[in-house]
Amino acid sequence: MPTRQGYYMWDSFAAGVALSSMRHGETGGVNEFAELEYMNITVVTSNEPYGARDGSNPFFDGRATPKFGLQEGGVHSGHVQTGIRDAFCLVPGGNRSRRCEDGYTKELSGPEAVRVYVATRAKPNADKNSSLNREFFKSFLEVLNLPKNAGRFNISTQFPHYREILYKPDFRNVSRGKPVIFDIDMSPGDFVSLIYLLKEPREVIDLKAVLVSGNGWANIASIDIVYDVLHMMGRDDVLVGLGNTTSLGNPTLGCKNSYAIPHGSGGFIDSDTLYGLARSLPRSPRRYMSENLDHPERQQPHAYDVWQSIRKQLGPGEKIAVLTSGPLTNLANISLSDIDASSVIERVYVVGGHIRDSGHDKGNVFTVPSNRYAEFNMFLDPLAAKTILESSLNITLIPLTVQRKVASFEGILAALEQHTQHTPESKFVRGLISLLQKLQRKQKLYDHMDIFLGEVLGAVYMVQGSNLEPSVKVKPASIVANTTESTDGQIFARRMSANQLKILYNLNNGIYYNHLAKSLANNKQSAVVGSFEEQKAIWSRPQKQFMANIAKDMK
Question: So what family is this one in (predicted)?
């Protein structure tokens, strides 16, 4: 029915067709928006060759007579897809499931089909002079603009003093610290790390940009949460760039290993709303913008464009520290597109990876049982990991082993509780961590929640370094990439590897917890607007005095 640009209209079009049929009669009446006809259809539940027995079809396998009276040799009697990585369904030499048709709708004759009234074509607009090419589009816009049952509020009418304000620090007469780019995939630990970096003195850390992986732990539209955290902390000056939605070396819609991220259970859906806590953050005027070919200036900035912008801002001899806490897709794409990128990168701190050099500790890719020794950030884009970790960049690795040493709910919550002084950001972090702990205790599907706690170590170690009393070793390493799901993303310490990684193996846990808690509780560089409730109160009264106070606090 609609063109490629009109996919978003499908649901409303279906509603329009249904309402028209209700008004004019299911049969015999003329539908205003679609041509309808009776068809015999079924929903495909198996794949050719039909009648084959391989143990995948519960309607036929092991039964004397098929369930529900289904036909032997019919469209329901073949192989049933057993999962997204079902080998039967994969095209030879490819990574995606393309052979299987489970869930397709197919026209069929015989007893397995059902007679259904089907909308086969959207009716064109009767008005040939209209710019709208479908009759439904005209009706849709007319109904939306009817005064009757119109909405009572939008955000500017609900709040009489609503204003879109960007909060930016006054950097005049301020000595700015090391330029930092933070590359994340929007897992819960990433947001704790982001808040921590925004709390550290600007004379030490100068956060320039946040890059977001499009193939990581949350939907790309969740970038709004990044904007909201920056807005809360008065850092709307920090650029935000969105990376590719596919892993390195894969075509569009070819995310090779993203199937490993669960839906729910701490993955998608949960992370998309930061477990429901995103709504409590103040709302930033900056929002996610999808691709807009007509107005490219309005679309979401790309990670590479943000990198180029930051690079141009560097002074003579100035270099950038990069902290990654997700798949290495963004950094790999930058290094491949900008051949001189390494000349302005002082060091890369990589949160992730699991070194198979001794012991029998397993990785954390819990959704792929066959891969026992990979870590999620490496597994989600193994080729990008290989590109970066086996490059000439100066790399410090914060692997899974040392992350686990500080992944204690009790340790971090106890440190936060020791401080009688609390800031809006420390309260938010404590609420998030307490929620993750509660989910882990009560729900088996959330047993892995502590994996997000270790991610924060990367940010703290980048800032504090030797103050944490670390144990660091330099070792060569190689990464397995683009082989099979059972080995992808695994890291081996090998003498023959040319690269040398600085690997963090240990630290003083007590110093780590206390420093993190103290930083979050510090009143300096605290939240400008602490919550959405506070923001609503601001929008409900004149803002002259409030803005004067903000200007004073941000100097």
Answer: Belongs to the IUNH family.
Is the model's pLDDT at 8 over the cut of 70? no
* Residue 9 three-state SS: helix
What are phi and psi for residue 518, nearest 5 degrees?
Answer: -65, -40
Contact 501, 386 (CB under 8 A): no
Q: What is the pLDDT of residues 282-319, one digit of tens each?
A: 999 999 987 665 666 678 899 999 999 999 999 999 99
Q: Which two tokens stand for residue 160?
A: 């009489």
Task: For 64-97, give one letter per residue: b (16+ CB within 10 A) or e.
Answer: eebeeebeeebbbbbbbbeeebbeebbeeeebbb
Residue 385 burial class via C-beta count within 10 angstroms: exposed 0-12, middle 13-18, buried 19 and up:
buried
Please give the radius of gyration of the chain, using alpha carbons only, rounded to the nearest integer.
Answer: 27
Report d(CA 42, CA 34) in Å as an integer: 21
Q: Report CA torsion sign: 221, 222, 225, 230.
A: negative
Q: Locate the DSSP E strands across 114-185.
A: 114-122, 178-184
Residue 102 has pLDDT above 50, yes or no: yes
Q: Residue 481: which region, alpha, beta or left (left: phi > 0; alpha: psi -120 to 50)?
A: beta
Tell me the pairing of strands 345-351 and 395-398: parallel
Q: Name the burial class of residue 254, with classes exposed (0-12), middle (13-18) and buried (19+) by CB atoms within 10 angstroms of its CB.
A: middle
Q: What is the pTM of this model?
A: 0.82
Dmax over CA atoms of the chain, in Å, equals 84
Measured CA distances, 484 to 57, 248, 370, 374, 377 (Å): 26, 16, 10, 12, 16
pLDDT in tens, 51-78: 888 889 999 988 889 998 888 888 899 9
